[in-house]
Amino acid sequence: MTSFWSWYIILIVLGVTFGTAALLYFVHRIDTGDIKKGESMGHSFDGIEELNNPLPKWWHIMFWITIVYSLAYLALYPGLGSYPGLLGWTSTGQWETEMQKADDTYGPIYEKMAATPINELADNQEALKMGQRLFANNCTVCHGSDARGARGYPNLTDQDWLYGSTPARIKQSIMTGRSGFMPALGEALGDKQTVTELAHYVRSLNGYQTDTHAAENGKKTFKVFCTSCHGTDAKGNQFIGAPDLTDGVWLYGGSQKIIENTIAKGRSGSMPAHKELLGEEKVHILAAYIYSFAKKPL
Ligand code: HEC
Ligand code: HEC
Hints:
Helix content is 56%, strand content 7%.
């Protein structure tokens, strides 16, 4: 804050406070001459007559107390422009003290958990509760409060893993993030017919009713364009996050139309890295929470 605005605020705050005090003082001292308490002041308006009724004493005292209180408050705490107050209190300072207290309480617990292997931690009820809370605060916007995901956001409870279900792979997913890239192949494939046939083939792999002739043609194109990422058996590749296309579990959807769209326009799902955001200890606990779904299906 520049010193101009600081003084601007100081003058307004003190002006209002002392102005109110002055008003109170002078109103209290108004000389009503010979007119006794409760008698008419001698003027009326619209049938309403003003009587000599001074403000009650208790009201006056209360008002003086609030004025003294506010001056004491302004002396001790920040309120007058950039004057910091005699106590040196700041909201940042209070926040830091509280964070320090939380660190002192939870630090040793986090440390102990961080030193425990993830597959052991996944059986520790206290760790799972902490993981659930961390998940609620950091992950539900994308993966849903029940971790079952949404279109484009994987279900983390379904035993179908884009990047692998071992403790190390799960932890890596959270630490460094993941980005799955499925290129738009519409142009490379040429006509719409080829895309349609491919989608028939992909659907046939999941036991859906399809046009067998179209699926046969699709299979040939699949060998040329898709196996490098999804594998010759179409079961995917967890190193690049290419999904298994045979398990009936869909990240984007398994209808003919959605699959055609995926092939023609491509997809790119992105899981943000959480290493800097949360720190490794919290990620470790989160990984145990997620791994508990892999270990023991819901
Ligand atoms: C901004 C949205 C977003 C947030 C927030 C987010 N994720 Fe993800 N997450 C994704 C997406 C999208 C993917 C899939 C990436 C892909 O398509 O390749 C993913 C993938 C994952 C995977 C890999 C799943 C698999 O099948 O291999 C794990 C594990 C995971 N997230 C856990 C978490 C945890 C734990 C948090 C909270 C700390 C979190 N995510 C927060 C969007 C998000
Ligand atoms: C460069 C590697 C790569 C190639 C080539 C590739 N894909 Fe993919 N595909 C991926 C990745 C990675 C994803 C996951 C995208 C994401 O996470 O957002 C994906 C997703 C998909 C999906 C969505 C699955 C779901 O669960 O919703 C379908 C369908 C698909 N690919 C079909 C194909 C077909 C058919 C071809 C060949 C024409 C092909 N892909 C070629 C990497 C590839």
